[in-house]
Amino acid sequence: MNVTQKIHTVLNQLNTVMAGKPEQVSDSATCLLAGGHLLIEDVPGVGKTTLAHALARTFGLEFARVQFTADLMPSDLSGVSVYERGQERFVFHPGPVFTQVLLADEINRASPKTQSALLEAMEEKQVTVEGETRPLPWPFFVIATQNPHDQLGTYALPESQLDRFLMRISLGYPERAAERDLLAGAGRRDMLATLPAVLNQTDLTALQQAVDQVHVAAPLLDYVQDLIGATRSGRWFLQGLSPRAGIALVRAARAKALINGRDYVAPDDVQAILPQCVAHRMVPVSDAGRGAVEQVRAMIDAVPLK
């Protein structure tokens, strides 16, 4: 299969599981092809965990799930060394972070100390336990879910943690027709049990290399810089995007262009993924009267294409 066929095969299978959510499916695949981590924020029961499972199975990746709770300790993620009497030495028992796709379920129900334990893993693709640094498997992709902040027992993710997520999406409630299919048909968890791997790690590597080959013209970079400059102007947000966030935005736009079947980035690609890539990194000015996503869309309308 060529690149286009591989992408269509992936999207078709994911859309079979996540009925009525083509935009969210496309965004999640974009995030994985761009090599980033994904944050899904929504109320319980709308399919966040199902999407994570489906992504891992479709790409043929090893999967682990951790339910974040208030008493979860950092060692519960990274692992611990235990003295083995038979070997007369300490033996390291790796935690669930040593996988390819880690589902951090309800991440904002854990304490800030445990949340921060993921920082090194997400940024450096390694963990340091008891003074020894251990590499994580490749690829390493974190899909974290979080409940809205107004729900009981949640902790807001620190800015440094949010910045490690390439994209944040929300699934929302299904449309009536899609929900009717859910009510009348087999459960999505049953579908996951028989979901085949349509790609493998070699295919994923080829797709991520194809992302690197997507052309970004100078005028497009000028447009991206205009958008980044607008976030720093003080008109829209209290604090603007960092250079790291700008680099992540360009890579996500490359992946979006590839999914859309092009070998170059168009302004539409940038506009399509900008809210998902930057809204979680910024706080609107106090008199905006809008949420971060709505503020980003208003900024897009105000920044002209030259």
Question: Would you mind describing this structure in some detail?
Answer:
By secondary structure, the protein is an alpha/beta fold. The protein folds into 2 domains: 3-70 and 99-203, Rossmann fold; 213-302, Orthogonal Bundle (Helicase, Ruva Protein, domain 3), CATH 1.10.8. It has 13 helices and 9 strands. The chain has helices at residues 3-17, 22-33, 48-58, 74-78, 112-124, 159-162, 176-184, 188-193, 201-212, 218-231, 243-259, 267-278, 292-302, and strands at residues 38-41, 63-67, 79-84, 89-94, 101-105, 126-129, 132-135, 141-146, 167-169. The strands form 3 sheets. The chain has a 5-stranded parallel beta sheet. A two-stranded antiparallel sheet has the order 3-4. The protein has a two-stranded antiparallel sheet with strand order 6-7. A hairpin with a 2-residue loop joins strand 6 (126-129) and strand 7. It is globular and about 70 Å long. It starts with a helix and ends with a helix. The model has no long low-confidence stretch (mean pLDDT 84).
